[in-house]
Every structure is written in C-alpha cells, then in structure tokens.
Amino acid sequence: MTTPTKRPPAEPEQRDSESDTAPEERRTPVAPQVAREVRRLLRRWRNQALPFATIGATHGIGAAAAALSSPEALLPVAAGWTASAGIYGHVHRSTSRWERLYACVAAGSSAGWQATLALAGANGVTAGLMWAFGAALSIPWWVRHAEPEPDVTAELAAPPQPREALPVAPGTADRRLKLWNEHIAAAGKPLPESTLDGITGFAYGWKATVTLATGEHWHTTLQARKSILSVYDLPDGRVFVEALHGESVRRSRLTVLTSDPLQQKNHWNGPGLDPATGKFPLMIAADGEPLHFKLWNPGAGALHALISGVTRSGKTKVLDVVLTEASMSDRVHPLVIDGGGGASLPQWCERANLFAGSPEQARQVLRYALRLIERRRPAVQRQGGGSLEPAPEMPLVPVVIDEAHKLLMSDDETDNRDIVRMCEQITQEGAKFGVCLILATQVPSVKQLGNSTALRDQVKAGTIVGLRITEKGSGNMIDTGDPMPEHLKDLPAEFPDGSSTHGLGYMMTSRKIRARALLLENPADHPVTPAPLDPESAAEPVPALNGSDRVEESPAQQRSGPAHEDVDAAVQQAIADGTDQDPSALMRETGLTMRQVRSALKRI
Ligand SMILES: Nc1ncnc2c1ncn2[C@@H]1O[C@H](COP(=O)(O)OP(=O)(O)OP(=O)(O)O)[C@@H](O)[C@H]1O
Fold first, then answer.
1. Is there an atom of ligand 1 within 6 Å of 36 CB?
2. Alpha carbon distances (Å) from 220 to 288, 426, 484
3. Please, what is the angle between helix 46-67 and helix 74-92, to 10°?
4. Does pTM surpass 0.80?
5. Which domains does the chain have, with CATH numbers?
6. Does residue 387's CB lie within 6 angstroms of at least one atom of ligand 1?
7. The complex's ipTM?
8. pLDDT (tens digit per residue) in 456-507
C-alpha cells in the first residue's frame, strides 16, 4: 500500500496564476466604471426621473416658442404636440387602463402648457405655475413607481455583490404580486387563476409559493418559466420552479434571482463530512443554499455516485473535493483509478491508498475491491445482516474512477466488458459491505457507462452531479425524479461578465436548481488522515500495481493460504457450476486471488 504523504503547499505565484479573472479586475480603468455606474443609475431610476424630464421638455418647448416671433413660434409647439401625441399613442398599447388614462392627462397637460408658455412667456409666474402643476400631476406616478424595477443591470455592469431584497413600503401593494396578477395570473395569461403567496426576500432575490387553479399540475408552472422571466424583466437562468414534495401537485416553490450568486467562485472551506449523516457540502445552489454529496446513508450502506461534464466543465475539481473530504476522514479509505492514464488526478498518485493509472491497474484495483467485499462478508453475518456502518474500525472504501467512460466503453479495438461487469458487481453488492463506486464521465448517459443499465440504476440511487455538456445525447441520458428546468447542454459557457462557468450544473438527485461546485485549488494543501482497513480486509493482499496481475501476498496469507487441493477443488466446482474459464470470472465466483485461480487453471 502506498503511504499517504503530505505535500508542501503550492507557491503563492502558482496559486495566483490559477485565478484567471482577478488580475483583469485589478486593471479595470476607473472612467468606464463611472460611466457604467451612471448608466446603471439612470436606468434604475428612469421611472422616477421621467416626470422631471417631461416637465423640463414642456418648459423648453414653451420657452423656445415664446422666444420666436410668429409664425416660427408654431414650429416648436407643433413638434411638442406631435411628441405628446406620439408618447400617448405608444402608451395606449399598454394593457393597463390606468396607464392609458394617466398618459392621456399628462400628454394633454403638456401640450396645453406648451401653448400657454408660448403665448404668455416662459418665465416667472407662468413657468412656476407650470412646474407646480407638473409636480402635482407627477405624484400618482411616483406613488405607483415607489419601488424601482428589479435591478438586473447592476451585476451585468460590475462584479456581483449580494444585495438585500428590495423592501416593500408598508401599506403599498407588492409590485411583484401586481406584476404576477396582471401578466401571469390574469385570464388569457400563462397561469390563469394562479396565486402567488408567501413572498420572502433573500440576499439574491425572492421566493414565493405558486398555487395553480384546480386541475392544474405544477409542471405547468415550470413550463411558464420563460414568461415569468419576461414579466420580471430578467436574463435567462434567473427563475427556478421546484416541487413542494408532500404538498398538493398544484403548489410549487418559485425562486427569482435579481442577481446571480453563482457568478462568483465559492471556495471550499475545509472538511465538512458529517459522520452522523455521511454527507458534506459540495455545491452552492442559486439561492445560496448548500447542496450535499452523500457518501453513505446511515443504516442503509454506502452510496454510489456519478459526476459528468464536458472537458473543462470542472468534474476533476469536483472529484478533488470528494477525495479531499474522503482522505481527511478517519472513516473513509479511498482507492483511485485515473482513466486519463494518470494525467487527470496526478495530485492523488502519492496520496491515495491505491492509485491506478492504466487499464490493467484499474482491473487490479477493481478485483481488489471485489475481494474486500468477500472479506467483509463474515462481519455482516456476525452483526446479523444489514449493512456495515462506516467507522474508524470499518472504513468506507470508495473506488473513485475519473474519465470512467474511457474504461467502460468498448470499441473494435478495446474490450472493456470485464471492467463493466466488475463495476456492476461492486455497485450491486458493495453497498452493504461499505464499498462504493464514484464515477466521472463526460456525459451522464448509459452509453458512457458501457451501456450498463445495472450501473445506471445503482448510481441513480446515490448522487448525480451534472455539469455542462455540449451535445444533447442519444436519448439515453440519465434523469431522476422531477423534470429538469433546463437541459445541461443549455447551461452557458460564460457568465455575463465573461468569466467561465466552470463547476456550474445541477445536483440531479437533489433540488432542481442551478448550482456551482465548491472550488478547492490545491488538494495537496490538506493533510491525509490515515484510515486503516479492518483486520479482515487488511489481510487481503494489496495489488502491486505494476501493470501485471501479480499480487503481493500478505504475511498472514503466506503463512496460512489454502492448500492447492482446496483451491483446485473450488475452481473445478465453479467451472462445473457453469462459470466461464475466465480467471476474472472464476476469481469473483470463488473469492480466490487471481494468482491462485491462474495457478489452479494451470494445474487442472
Ligand atoms: N467549481 C469551480 N469554480 C471555479 N472554477 C472551477 C471550478 N471547477 C473547476 N474550475 C476551473 O475549471 C478548470 C477546469 O477544471 P477541471 O480540470 O476540473 O475540468 P474537467 O472537466 O475535469 O476537465 P478535463 O475533462 O479536461 O479533465 C480549472 O482551471 C479549474 O480551476
């Protein structure tokens, strides 16, 4: 067994070079930032500023007309009247009767004051009266627009900052509710007769409960996501609809984000594996809540997992977090297989209990894991069935396989069916013996699992993390539970500020809301906690991982291995029972080591 070692922390320069956005942010000039901020404020407060602009324009037109002698004075007045009529015509298309009426009064008043100022002069008492009248007429407008539009320009213009949800003035109807009632719940709109209640703000937006009309299902609310985005004037990816399990199918939880917390990197802050629950935080959801990865279910055994994503989507970084949590716990004894030939998880070459960097070594590690299952059988029998609970004296043994599709898919030149069979066996039998499989592939599809529906069914019961992919797939995508709000291929490659969306995806076996994986820059910065195997498992020889099938026998086995006759008899019996004369199959069937099976096959 390779002794885990602690590596020195990376040099600061090295860590800096990995941060791709920080230096750019530091170089951003001030002038464009000020211009952006002015544009943002103007856009945000445009509703409040509009009456001043209208009164000012009325004053300007009246003053221009008063300064000219007739008939030239008619020109600015005619232009002003045309503008007033045009603005009214534009607003008339609005669905709100109030807005039509108000626009009619405002446009008529503006035209009237333009003429009055032109005839009576635009200074002194007349202009004062006009401003006072305009301000009085603006009061209903300001009351109606007491709450600014949802501010979506802020985070497009500048790095996002968590913001408190906008407060609603006491006694004022909630604008979010009004928009819902007018544009979503009204007759002929996407969700007629629906109600929005329990609106509560949080740092990045607000949440509410949607209840549909009798006879409707919450999936309809999910389908209305694009309309909801449009009504609240938000960019894509800011509205999420989730089932309220255990409640009426008409009800669902709506999450609306006015800014996007996922745009910033969320760093892993130290080990969080809770031995009582077997889970640790792996991702941060769009509403700021953590999503957990489960290594085991208390009382129900180990859980398998699948992490998928296109190249550079961040799946290796997810495995880094999983492996760091595992290797810092005294109740987890991880084994690592790198399907990328040792290039994907090089940090773990010296730190994992076993590290396989070639297909042949991968086979050896999988056989070893299968033999550990056999070794632990008596422990389960002794405790009267059930499953082994991970503990310092009986650690969980996760077999983590990066680039697993390379080892599971067969083609004309490579036959990997034996690897698929061994993985199936681990997922089907390993859970109650504390042995599980954690796979990383490029697409969460059955095809990438070697077309094994058995593997698919087992990983679906555990954790599936789906990061961004680029192809829709061939129809055999793995899905779980509630419908996904969007296809993984529709996840953006970049955020609006141009930064990459590495680590962005869904925990498909948890809440159906966008999330981003925690980032651990350098796993070697964190010490490995030894988690020695239980004595029965420790008696199993550890493969030498030299590319051959040779195994090192433990001293105990060298002293007391079974006699040749017993080995030969067990192998003969397995063949007589119908097992193929394939060493791997015989090894699994008999529980003997590969060397024993090979030797027996030579003898019989
Ligand atoms: N959660 C994250 N937050 C921010 N950046 C991340 C996150 N995860 C990964 N990255 C960055 O994305 C880049 C690619 O990550 P990673 O190597 O894990 O991708 P991958 O999917 O394993 O790619 P490949 O298939 O090529 O190995 C790295 O530079 C990493 O720093």
1. no
2. 25, 40, 13
3. 160
4. no
5. 37-144 (no CATH), 153-259 (3.30.980), 278-537 (3.40.50.300), 555-603 (no CATH)
6. no
7. 0.97
8. 999 998 999 999 998 776 446 787 788 888 999 999 999 988 999 999 999 9
